[in-house]
Amino acid sequence: MSKMPVLFIGHGSPMNAIEDNSFTQTWEEMAKKIPIPKAILVISAHWYVKGTRVLTDVKPKMTYDMYGFPQELYQVVYDAPGAVETAQRVQDLLGNIVKVDNSWGYDHGNWAVLHKMYPNCDIPVTQLSVDQTLSAKGHFLLGQKLKPLRDEGVLILASGDVVHNLQRVDWDSTSGYDWAETFDHQIRDEVVAGRYENIINYEVFGKPAQWSVPTPDHYYPLLYMIGAADTDDKVTVYNDACVMGSLSMTSYLLG
């Protein structure tokens, strides 16, 4: 069985689920470049709760966790079967820290991306929450514990945004503010160089980090990617851009 890469997808606006643009086309191309997964584990920024939880449903529900968008977006259905065996394996790897929780389902950090990457809905999917009580280092360590899944045919897909500040969004902008671009590029350089300490301790980047990560929910999934990385992984950067002033679309494939 081919060893799977590990991905971080900058998912940006929920509208990407129903738009055909350069970012979504790149997601489609990413899926074609890697082996077909046996199952997919999504770590989504939108399941941000107290505690580490895993989805074990055979038929997970759709969660439309966004407001004020066109009705078409709420009609997207991603009915991939639940990856029950992978969910059990996640419990084995993480131990007592993880609890079963089927109240959430697939949120748009999950389905907006997979709807483009794997539109046939034929690969089983499970999802892991992002624990708001853990430190950045704690999320990195969970990523390390999940690394064996890569040798078992499971695609680990972390979904968030390196830069995510909704208070400063400019819906008409096709680029990023200077501070957003600065932080996005700083993190990119650290990922490419394999310098993970500064990614974990992102506050070292000062004001650009403060403005780019006002809350860590969308940043923390990145730490699962680097946690599950191997020292010999090749890094490929995709969608290397900020949009709407304060959202990063930058995505990574390590493998």
Describe the structure.
It is a single chain. This protein is an alpha/beta fold. Helices cover 31% and strands 19% of the residues. It has helices at 22-33, 84-94, 108-117, 136-146, 178-193, 196-200, 207-212, 220-227; strands spanning 6-10, 39-49, 52-54, 98-100, 125-131, 154-160, 235-238, 242-243, 247-248, 251-254. It has a six-stranded mixed beta sheet, with helices on both faces. A two-stranded parallel sheet has the order 3-4. It has a two-stranded antiparallel sheet with strand order 8-9. Strand 8 and strand 9 (247-248) form a beta hairpin. The chain starts with 5 loop residues before the first strand and ends with a strand.
Describe the global form.
Answer: globular
> Uncertain runs with pLDDT below 50, 5 residues or more?
none
Fraction of residues in helix: 25-40%
Largest sheet: 6 strands, mixed
Name a few traits of the molecule:
255 residues, alpha/beta, 6-stranded mixed beta sheet, globular
Topology:
Elements: E1 6-10, H1 22-33, E2 39-49, E3 52-54, H2 84-94, E4 98-100, H3 108-117, E5 125-131, H4 136-146, E6 154-160, H5 178-193, H6 196-200, H7 207-212, H8 220-227, E7 235-238, E8 242-243, E9 247-248, E10 251-254
Parallel strand pairs: 1-6, 2-5, 2-6, 3-4
Antiparallel strand pairs: 1-10, 7-10, 8-9
